[in-house]
Amino acid sequence: MIRNERNNGSPQKRPSPSSSHVNWSPLSSPVKTSRHIMDSLVNLRGDDDVIQTPIAPALNFASNVVVEEKFSSQLMALGELEFRKAFLVLSYIGSERLEEVTTADKIRRLKDLAMDKFEEEVWVSLGRQYVTPADRRKSLEWESGKTYEYHCHVSENGSCRFKGPYVDKTSRTHLQRVLGDDNVLIVKFASVSDGKSSGDNDCFAEYSKIAKRGILVGLRCYRFFDVLLRCRLNKKKSDNSFSIKVWHEKSHKEVMLQQTFQNKSATFETSLLAQKVFNGGKKARKKDPTSSSVRCLFVRFESDASVDDGKDYVLSGKTIQEARRVFMHVHTLSNIAKYMARFSLILSTTMKLEVDLADVNVDTIEDIQCQDKDGNSVCNKDGEPCIHTDGTGYISEDLALKCPKNVFEGSIVNGDNVEGKFSGMNSTESDHRVPPLLIQFRLFNNGSAVKGTLLVNKKLPPRTIEIRPSMIKVKSDPNLSNICTRNTLEVVATSNQPKKTSLSRNMIALLSHGGVPDDFFMGILKNAIEESHGVFSNKRAALKVSHHRGGMDDVSAMILSGIPLDESYLQHRMSIMLNEERKGLLGGKLPITESYYLMGTVDPSGVLESDEVCIILDNGQISGKVLVYRQPGVHFGDIHVLNARYVESLEEFVGHAKYAIFFPCKGPRSLADEMAGGDFDGDMYFVSRNPQLLNYFRVSEPWMGNSSTFGVSSKGPSELSDGELEDELFKLFLRTRFRPSYATSLAANNWLAIMDQFLTLEDSNSCEKALLKKNLLRLIDLYYEALDAPKTGKEKFGSSLALMLAFLKIAEKSGLNYVSSTGRT
């Protein structure tokens, strides 16, 4: 391996990949051109080698002489443009070769135009000829300072199409702040059209080669760096969930759980169902073959663009592993799954808190362990100590005052989210503010990565943060103490004023099991429908429906500003709002009064008993019985009834800060853990004071987690070579992207199906009902284990097939013979 030891702070130069008599464009075939470039960059030992470092001018390894090569004049001209302008040109030529559609002179003539004028000129001369109008990136916010995203769509044959830049109204990620928006490329690989999901597929071989050799964007080279997984547990049911029939031995026939499956002799791998599960559904693939919640992120390592000459760049001269250590010492983790999961912390959409961490005391305090009545520490079934304080620490008031209120997913709700604007607040303004009570955060400090929540603590000395071991997800490597890392404190969310909330399908099923009658839910549904009927004619009804949606629409503001209800645009917005409201009702989202979602933490005073909580709302602390639940709980005991009490000493810690639920730090088990294995790293808890719910509902015994039934791979990242590590990481991406696990959605959907049957069975069928309940509990254990698998690295339910087989056994033991299509849930 030849290595360039020079590091002058400017982007490393790549060798020119073309010969002196042939002009070429990386747009024609990125796979071929990448091979050409990288073969000249590094003396490859074989196809499995991963290119690790940017190299100095190209060498002919046979003769060890520098080869004189040059780029096409069009690429050279493109390299003189600001990157977003250059990318826009590449985006607007689609799959065409740059050299065949324009000249260097034409490119240079556009160089000094303002971005809006530049876009218009490039669209007229190139865009409207080679791409569809939907791909046009016309914007009025080019100079707004907002985030830009750059996309690359890779087809099955390895060819690339660039799309963007997209103006993103959300905040930046830590990765984007450190490298810059233009140095991060979001890469989306197309699904396989032949339905194959084997790692031996030629398509995946091409994808792997691209990961090793990088993607050329003009005169820049981007390399595989991280994986972005955007998923929602309760996503809209589409091709990602499926249904089965179970062979019922007693009746000698198939019985339906949800929709249609093949007969008993059909194998899972060869069935049409398997193709649908593993490939994401034909309908979605026809619409956009690159559509997926899993995307690769490539980052720039090298550049031959003249616009990059002489500019400092944080990854200059670094290998991929060295580049990752700029963010955290992720190599210290125990397995590849954790490596990928924890490194993705830099992809959280956050707001940077303008704090110099060199002047902040970051102290580690012990977690509070659970104890039995004799004062002995309690361990879980895996032998690990149980703790009450999982994921929560403290922050001094002066630092908390630097954080704005009403932050959600890194942005100020209904505020100005341009980066850095809030940091201009002066100290006088801070003195009159009340800080957020809780801050959900990410802390990257000297190679460590910390996540969780920080509770404002007026008793702490200034400029102090206290974290706990349970919050430290990546530890610093003491052998790398001299390596410079990018330290920062990032805010994900704050504890905000709760909006109107709704029940969910899971909650309705659990509440129904706990004794809440059907009439209660039907009454809510009837009232919601009646209110929606008056939206177009009654201001109060329109405002109420808008309020139910949490102010996510501009309807309320328009009505309150005096716009009449019959105004055409307002009618249009209200029709959209009403459709969404009705969709929610169909999905079980029933609006309920005196209920809230609050961020959870632990009582710092130690006053609360094991069945007590403290809740702070608009008017301070509340008292009385409350019903508490955490999504996505499906166990009968995941809904608790607790005593809310006033804790006077709590004000000494939090002052007048509001909006949170405090759990006790006493008892043999954390109350949060009893609710679907919750913790305090930002989890939101449903809290209800609704008198009817409290009157009807009867609690069940809480969920008790079983010990793990499957381990993790023993070989850690530090035991792999750099090449082997990159191979394993990209293989993990390919498995996640093309053979995703639908274990959680499968378990959740079929839990609902069996729960529906369980609730509709008559009490006279006590034996069958007891058997159903027993097997429901087993399915719940499988569901919770599948939920934690991505974080723990446990692979038992890494594929839908494993959970499918386990579920089939449960279903058959239940003697299923009917699932209601119009049941209670």
From TrEMBL:
Keywords: Nucleotidyltransferase, RNA-binding, RNA-directed RNA polymerase, RNA-mediated gene silencing, Transferase. The keyword Nucleotidyltransferase applies. Residues 1-31 are annotated as: Disordered. Residues 74-142 form the RDRP helical domain. Pfam families: RdRP, RdRP_helical. One of its GO terms (cellular component) is nuclear RNA-directed RNA polymerase complex. InterPro entries: RDRP, RDRP_core, RDRP_helical. Residues 160-795 form the RDRP core domain. GO terms for molecular function: RNA binding; RNA-directed RNA polymerase activity. Residues 7-31 have a biased composition (Polar residues). One of its GO terms (biological process) is siRNA processing. Its EC number is 2.7.7.48. Coiled coil: none annotated. PANTHER family: RNA-DEPENDENT RNA POLYMERASE (PTHR23079), RNA-DIRECTED RNA POLYMERASE (PTHR23079:SF55). Belongs to the RdRP family. This is RNA-dependent RNA polymerase. It comes from Durio zibethinus. The gene is LOC111286545.
